[in-house]
């Protein structure tokens, strides 16, 4: 058995050592159309669950190139960017029941709506090593930036139910003497209607527009197959790959709270994949059609903004757990002049 494994190992080693690879430089540019989806969800301080899941249609641009270092190694510099975005309606939903003493309020519906559009940019720098003709392992880093632009805010049909349920835990809170923040009843407690008037959500009147920019620096590794690295022959070309990543740095800027810093490290993950086929017309030029898929998840990031004496609890600003994914179909031209 040992002898058989030794012969197999020597055979594989001999194959890798003597296999011819086509490790040559190339550049490319491509354009595609697809959809970018954003999902944000979580639990509010009152215990209510909320969620929003807008999807936009985008035009994508791919560009970059590969440069060999030696017979088996090389590096990539690749970019992905959206050139345009549709504007879509976004709906924020909430559900759950909240009880305070003998008072229970519930919500199940849309409490806020608005219009949204999106932009996305990636810069990837990878080192690659050909382990066999066409087969390559890669590792490196990625800088990604996604922006959600929101405007035209309006109240949802369940806004009143949302406010009543969300503020139910604060019924009975004692107001600071002389603060004048809200009126109090004879017992010195905040009534629900007074809570809503002071702290309730009112998107149509209180929100004009804002953007959220999600930035990540991601450590990535993966496997790709590209028949271009196996032969210089003309004709059919196949390619595909899977790349996974871990965010070393994650930061969010929300223009509705521009002074707050939301950042985290090693929280969440990235994954992207692609598959395609094309035709090499000459030794220097070809075209590829491919499908790309990208997904990334990030955990909630919270910032403490202090204790509310009126509400008798700590208040926090949060960037909820969120997901971004896109898919697109593209056509790419590639060339080399070596």
TrEMBL record:
Keywords: Signal
Domain of life: Bacteria
InterPro entries reported for this sequence: EF_Hand_1_Ca_BS
Signal peptide extent: 1-19
Keyword Signal attributed: yes
Name of the molecule in the record: Outer membrane protein beta-barrel domain-containing protein
Organism, as annotated: Psychrosphaera aquimarina
